[in-house]
Design goal:
This protein is mainly α. The chain has a single domain (11-121), classed as ATPase, nucleotide binding domain (Nucleotidyltransferase, domain 5, 2-Layer Sandwich). The chain contains 7 helices and 2 strands. The chain has helices at 11-17, 32-35, 39-60, 69-74, 76-90, 93-96, 110-121; strands at 64-67, 100-103. The chain has a two-stranded parallel ribbon. Helix 3 (39-60) crosses helix 5. The longest helix is centred in the middle third of the chain and has 22 residues, at 39-60. It is flat and about 45 Å long.
Amino acid sequence: MVDATPIDWGIGDWLVRSGRNDSPGRQPASGNGVQHGNNEALAGIGHRLGAGIASLCNVFGSDFVVIGGGFGVAGFDRITPAALETAKRDALDAAGATLQIVRAELGTMAGLIGAGLLAFSALP
């Protein structure tokens, strides 16, 4: 059994909105900001994400990280390589050697389903 704690950094929403199609009431084109974004800026986000992942791996001893929600859909392929590189470099040897970052199978519904499960676990 995998012990996982969902963390929502809200980066996925920013990535999708960065396509400049963010007017109220309008759905932005899926991943538009990521597909046409600045590679240097996306790599910077990936490195910051990787530093955070490394810290969490050092604290919790994790070697498997799942990225889901809007972030997992919008920017996974463009940001994960930089995140994995930084996380492996910054993590302690035990966590960094076998670290894997994967995309959640639930896609954009991951946060919603996790919130629902959390609410159900609070019921008597």
